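Q: What would this chain look like folded?
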Amino acid sequence: MKEDTAWASIGHEVAFGQSIYKVPQISEAIRETFEVTRGYQNIGVRGADFDVLFSALHGGLVSYRYGGKELIKGIPMPNFWRAPNDNDRGNHMPARYSQWKIASLYLSHMLFDKKDILRPELLVNENCAEIKFRYMMPTVPASECSLTYCVYGDGTIKTSLAYDPEKTLGDMPEFGVMFKFDADYNRTEWYGLGPDETYADRNRGSKLGIYSEIVADAMAKYLVPQECGNKTGVRWAKIADRKGRGILFSGNEMYFSALPYTPHELENARHPFELPNVHYTVVRISQKQMGLAGDDSWGARTHDEYLLDISSPMLFEFSFKGI
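A: My prediction, written as structure tokens:
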């Protein structure tokens, strides 16, 4: 606005537009050396500034130390669930998608009808050590997914989540990986859409840029705790402590969420005071999350174009590295 009006003051933004220019990048192979140790229960990879430990017994990445400091507090696991919002409850989404909540909570690296462990597969090549875990999901019919880590010599870990859709199960609320960090890692910065939360069907009013916030501030002040704080179109995102130490995630227009609670903790609370004490920063990196179904709160479902595509095998790739 060039001047004051009855409905807006001078300088008020009426509309905006952005164009995205993609510049071809030449990827350079990471040639730094690394050492792999294979034990009966564990696989270790060590470089100049980092060391990681994968456990066959516990089924995943159990330790990632960068610069001598342990960064993760829980095994990163595939995640297919989000806390239902008011619109979801209005259209009975929790009941319709309930198998994906069960799959997220109880997927296992062990065969359900036996005591056999699905041992990780190790492949070492010139550039990286590749460790692949398979997970069985207690759905009907049974299904499985895999999570593969490629560890490079500079501490970068390229992560791939793969799932061959079982068509009778339908689409899921989210397709990604959930991490847990110590609650001291309470600062986020991201290059993507912002500055407020965005979703597949709620991002037209956001701008692409670099934004930052405190993790606790990503919690929307709803009367009933529910899904909130997601960011779409994310090229990279950092989670760090007050000294700037933490992890950098990078990928191709990912979805990113950093909250003090898991989706299940949010869903279990009917009021904010029922949320548990904060012990972790919970980061969810996903390829996509279904839209919010915001036409109304009494039955309207998410539009088809904002659901996850299960017409072909699903693959989500991203990388993370200590900072």
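The chain has four helices and 17 strands.
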